[in-house]
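Homework help board

Subject: predicted structure for assignment chain

Our instructor gave us this sequence and asked us to write out the predicted structure in token form, then describe one feature. I got the tokens but I'm not sure how to describe them. Can anyone check?
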Amino acid sequence: MVVRACWPKHTFMGRIGDLESKVLAVSRPTPTQANAAMLLQGNAVTRLLLVTGGHVRVHRAALANGPTMLLDILGAGDLVALEDLVVGSRSHATYLCGPKLASVRAISLADFARLRAENPRIEQAVVWTIATQLRERDAALALASHKVRNRVIMFLRWLAAAHGREDTETGAVLIDVGFTQPDIAAAVGAAPAQVSAVLSSLRDNGFIAIGYRSLHVLADLRKAVDGVSAAGNGSPPG
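My token output:
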């Protein structure tokens, strides 16, 4: 049995409080492989997957055989394919295990339907989760008209807020989701060379430190945004 002292508050599991034991009781460990697809866009949703560790990337192609865009990143406490289950459709996206192995637990559709019917707080958490995802993606769309620099900065701010780990002594925030510069480019709709130039500028000006598939946020990235006020916690990909 998976036991966590605290699920992130912005996740489905973080919203259901002491009902987590009921969800975990009907879940089963499921093997994963780094960079492997858990569910392909267009395939039937036959189960839910609860992420308990690591990260899962959500990609979508607008056209058949076309390039994909990174829509979201799921972490501990999130559910894979929740939106598709509620709508009753095939998967709207492809879910990929990150380069650093994610741990997930499978929940049958019948078991999850029973939990929703018997526990109003679980149903409320489902609605809250989907509404929050919609709001975040709307916020990201509003950045589409901004220059690449600002799109990259706001994406990094969202990553730090949603998936970062703060060093309590230095205040630096580690973003360690296994991203490459092409991954960031896919998230913000830019060329990898443009992303590289922005990251180099942020590094040279003391805002970030770049590691292998990771980076540290060293200073308030809002001060690096060009020409606009950057209120809030940043915007998600997509």
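Reply (TA_rk): Your tokens look well-formed. For the description, you could write something like this. Helices lie at 12-15, 20-25, 82-87, 109-118, 120-141, 148-163, 181-188, 192-204. That's the kind of observation they're looking for.
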